[in-house]
Amino acid sequence: MATATSRKQPRRLFTALFLPPTPESLLLLVTTAALVAGGVCRLAGAPGLADLCWGLGTVAAVIPSIGWVLDALRHGRAGVDLIAVLALGGTLAVHEYLAGALIALMLASGRTLEAAAQRRASHDLRALLERAPRTARVRTGAGVHEIPSSEVAVGDLLVVGPGEVVPVDGRVAAAPAALDESALTGEPLTVRRGPGEPVRSGVLNAGGAFELRATATEEDSTYAGIVRLARQAGAESAPVVRLADRYAAWFLPLSLAVAGLAWLVSGSAVRAVAVLVVATPCPLLLAAPVAVVSGLSRASRLGVVVRDGGALENLGRARTLLLDKTGTLTGGRPRVLDVVAAPRWQSAQVLRLAASLDQYSPHVLARAVVDAARERGLHLSEPLQVSEEPGRGASGTVAGRRMTIGRRAEDAELPDWGRSVENRALLDGAAVAWLSVDGAPVGAVLLRDPLRPDAPRTLRRLRASGIRRLVMLTGDRAASAREVGAVLGLDDVRAGLTPAGKVAEVRAEREHAVTVMVGDGVNDAPALAAADIGVAMGARGSTASSEAADIVLTTDRVDRLADAGAIAVRARRIAVQSALGGMALSLAAMAAAAFGLLPPAAGALLQEGIDVAVILNALRVLRDDRQGRPVLPPSTEALIRRFAAEHDDLQDVLEAVRDAADRLSDGAGEDSLAAVREVHRLLTERLLPHEYAEEHELYPALAPTLGGPEATATMSRAHAEIERLARRIATHLTLTGADGSPSPEQLDDLRACLYGLHTVLRLHFVQEEESYFSLAL
Q1: In this structure, are residues 282 and 69 in contact, taking their beta carbons and an 8 Å threshold?
Q2: Catalytic residue positions?
Q3: Which of 117, 378, 417, 748 fits a disulfide with 373 by CB distance 3.0 to 4.6 angstroms?
Q4: Residue 15 — very low, low, confident or very high, per pLDDT cuts 50/70/90?
């Protein structure tokens, strides 16, 4: 693959250099023709004609060079293009026509290479702009007709054909859709969206035609916001480019001083011209823009749209990172943490009834309950006479019994098991949805917005890239915010903040270091605008936050921020390296020319090489250099996705283990022993086969990427502990007395085994999700 790619590069460069014709390529053609014609004339014994050809080539370069100088002066800059004009004029004045022709060729080739590099580096951004949809097909009572996408209204029913780009944000109306979201997310795998699921504009229909109900106009849709950002990308001068201009501010007078001194000491104008010749090229002004635009291109391939080069360069200098909690460090969507059942009820039964009642509710907690039930394959019943009270919950009839799900009445008396639920909700920072049947509480569903699996790895990578201070800014309660901060190892947590409070915190942090703010909601937009660099989670975030941000993550993965940070650091390092390296070589050549060791013609050839070298070095930014996130084979990614899905399916096993331990704490009755036997069945039939498959399929596949078998040794040790505890539970069941009850000493150990297994499983699952599964999510 690498060989095939390398073979394509010369073809791409040729195309970029000569097709289509540009002013730079035309100047290169003229100066090359003049140099070659002069060489032919000299070989033919016509030196006068040769000098004429070379002189004309020099004059052809003087005219645009003067234009470049005047343009720079209009923008308040006096760069090294002025040296080019002086050098060209000097070669004509001292009759060094060959040197003048070489300088002309050098300038033309340098400008052409720069233009080619800019086109090559901005290819991905141009592709983003060019694929923006222009029309949409709307279904009405009169049939399907095509209209400009700008005329689509919220609520319109659109038809998206195979291979078409979705024109506006919407929801799948009927049949499922197969979508290629790589233009937004950088992920090549096709995803499926079922009826009612959201679809963002800009994604490609990779399957059959489907209907889409528009939820936003074109202007307010995801892709339109990205296009607006992309149009600005690279349009502004990045700080590193302005830094190059500052270098040029002293490089120009230094070059003139060295040239004048060489002329004064030696009495030879030729030496002064030679000094100007080797000072002519612009490694400063060529390297920095090419590196920055290359960085913008690399970031766009990963689903990171950067508003301009200044934002990218600032990201590379950032030392403080401020993060919102919900939707940034957490998933932004609550998930079922646990299901607790009253005595004589089962957790699966509680979840099934709660989801049956909640399946028509638009509330975010209700959707989480329904999703959890469907993930576990539970059959939902049709509710009747459903009503919903905002802020309280829903009520209705399921299977002939009156039920309610939601908040409990303040004056309702809680049973003992209910008080333990409330205590646990307080400890875990979870919300509780109580299920009551015929007026009596029978179970509770605990819900919490979980941490993103990739958040810990991302924060470690950001620290490694130079971020020294990590702070969470959130409007959430202090207790739940501090818990998240402790798990992630944040330096500080600021909770209970209003949007104005977040802005104040951002401004305070900016006093000490270049600051990045990451958020996704409307309430984050002011803070994003106040930061040095605002980063919006644009995949599910608000339009307001995306518009206020300097950088938008178009995929719902916070680890893309770490990728963007690594690209920014690398782009800035290579830009400065190229500029300073090229300038150092020019200074050395200037010293040699001042002492008469480098004639003008040879100096021109040398500077041409320096010019090409700095541009090629700047283009290294385009190379994929993601050292922080291993690149996995597709087969390994498929295994990760399989086992990640199995983790979701096994959540009910973890709940059953915890429930059995709790029941044993209440006494060794028949119900509690039945729960233990059910746990043993679940461990034998579902959990242990899963752990065995991970050990013998997933871990060997991950080992080569992670550095060998030792990288998974800790996780393998956890597998051994899980198996040991499962065997111990099985042994206790075989040792029960004649009446089927365990002895008192057995009861204590059995309860300890169940609580221990639950703890080990939770920790093991979290570690796998953070360390392994996040690599492919």
Answers
A1: no
A2: 324
A3: 378
A4: very low
